[in-house]
Amino acid sequence: MNVLVTGGAGYIGTHTCVELLNRGDRVIVLDNYVNSSPAALRGVEQITGRTFPVYEADLMDYNAVKRVFSENQIDAVIHFAGLKAVGESVSKPLDYYRNNLIGTLNLLEVMKEHDVKKLVFSSSATVYGMNNEPPFREDMPRSTTNPYGATKLMIEDMLRDLCYACKEWSVVLLRYFNPIGAHESGLIGENPNGIPNNLMPYIVKVAAGELPCLSIYGGDYPTPDGTCIRDYIHVYDLAMGHLKALEYLGHMQGAEAINLGTGKGYSVLEVVQAFERATGRTVNHKMAPRREGDIAACYADVSKARELLHWEAVKTLEEMCRDSWNFAARNGARQ
Ligand code: NAD
Ligand code: UFG
């Protein structure tokens, strides 16, 4: 299969490209490197021993997107490209709406013109909002508390409307829970600039001695140890979920939302302990006030993914921690 991967140089995109190439698919990457670099794609080439066309292009540039479709035979698209920082989306809402919505609209218009009607879209567990009880099921009411989440809701709706209007489209809306980990080679992984917002990159920097201490946001939640619970999923498992979603596109029509998580929740303290066990490093931590917008517990009901995609996550929390640390260590984290 010939697969266009938008945002293919990013964290989840690179890991998905590796598994597509390993399976023998042909990959075409489009990325403007706003949150990544060409070095990540060199890592993909190194792991797989394969090369592939890469377009440094902005999805907001309609003509650039058209060129990619004119110059390549494309059977399906995996659409990762988008801005994803929740906090930044609150301070720069227009950037998020412009990039995520206009980028997606351009992509869909060009897909339509070129008669490419199979799409896997990166949605997020953020669409379950603050008012549902976990485990989250795909048919629960959706809501959001920030512009980033609003773009995911709007794009999900846009895609449903498109599928309603034109029955030839097949779209899978994958709602990711909390992806962490890295490729076991340590050649690709998550490498945020500056001080990380997310838990695992922060833990890694504390373990490496680059940051002094992890603040645990809230020890008074109604959970067994008082800290928040999330459904952490290895980025390898997530990548494999995309391969299964592509297969599923071949025998479905319309738009289908599917959770990608493990179905198991771990607390912040459990993640810290698992990291220490898996790596032998110490993670200094202290309790801090709650972070605005956090919910006590977020984990997936994974039965739909199991039934429709014949997919489930296989990697353990220890493997996620070990691979996150291995990537950081190979890429210059202080030991
Ligand atoms: P990432 O930032 O590492 O990757 C996104 C890629 O898209 C980057 O390489 C970036 O340069 C590119 N990009 C952004 N805007 C672009 C544009 N206009 N034109 C071309 N390229 C553009 O993020 P990720 O963690 O790999 O996430 C991929 C997708 O999954 C995103 O849509 C994100 O919202 C979604 N998602 C991520 C998480 C997570 O925790 N990582 C959770 C839920 C959903
Ligand atoms: N946390 C800390 N200290 C930190 C960082 C995080 O205690 O320094 C805690 C958070 O309070 C939360 C947990 O660790 O309880 C996980 O936090 P992350 O920021 O890693 O992840 P979130 O669950 O908040 O957010 C993730 C994605 C978002 C997505 C959201 C909902 O990063 O893009 O899941 O699915 F919108």
Automatic annotation (TrEMBL):
Gene Ontology molecular functions: UDP-glucose 4-epimerase activity
Record's GO cellular component terms: cytosol
Name under which the protein is recorded: UDP-glucose 4-epimerase
Gene designation: galE
Keywords: Carbohydrate metabolism, Isomerase, NAD
Similarity comment text for this entry: Belongs to the NAD(P)-dependent epimerase/dehydratase family.
SUPFAM superfamilies (alphabetical): NAD(P)-binding Rossmann-fold domains (SSF51735)
Subunit structure: Homodimer.
BP-aspect Gene Ontology terms: galactose metabolic process
Enzyme class: isomerase
CDD domains (alphabetical): UDP_G4E_1_SDR_e
